[in-house]
Amino acid sequence: MQFSQLSPHRADLAQTVLGNALLALAYALTAWAMIHLIMPSTYAVPLYPSAGLALAAVLCLGYRYLIGVALGAFVTNVLLSASLGQTLVFTSIVLGVGSAAQAALGAWAIRRRTVEPLILAEPIELVRFYSLGAGVACCVSASVGVLALKAAGAIDDWQRASQTWITWWSGDLLGVLIGAPVVMCFLGKPRSIWVPRRWTVGLPLTLCCGVMVLALTRVTPSNVHWPQTTLALIALLLTGLLGALLLTTSGRTLRIEQAVRDRTAQLDLEIAQHRRTEV
Fold first, then answer.
1. pTM of the complete model
2. Residues of the chain with pLDDT under 50
């Protein structure tokens, strides 16, 4: 049965349920791929695009999609803990709630400090987007996750806990810097601004991120402090900054094109009205 055949309330409910299921699946698959490609034996990785996916989904689709974020994080951590021989179900629930809280805080802070619609074409918009959605909000999941894992005995001592927190926070931060703009190219509104950015923003960021992931596949928990690891993380940060530059450039270009089209339409209307007056 199609959504159009249902009542408006049931159609909206069905769409929300399906959307949350798809979001959870995308979150879990992305997270699982990153964990097993980069550092398969830890709960924190240097790059976690699922954090960017979660923030972009909540920003573009609404808070009702926090369920999909929590479910995707829960499934990811249950499977990860099982692969490590721990099966931390309750802890995974806490981690899922932490991931959802992070996305909710980031979306709330960005909406509060930016102007709708969220175009991300001006430097001040990007500063607020990245500082609040990445820098500040990403402290939530890292803090909740480390404390929950420490309480469950999955982390032995506080020195390892602090190292895990830094890796967790930086991985989520880079995931938001790179992942959120890519996802918003598909979910963001107005569509006239975001759809063209799939080629000017989404594709370059995805390609650069893919190269960096290949570099990080050489990293293991025993060599995370090697120089090449630091260089790879710096390259990821530069990729995020590249995304900010692409967003600003493409956004301003699209605004100029829209202004030219509007002015051209206005002039055509004035010319048509002038001709009718002469007749």
1. 0.85
2. 1, 220-228
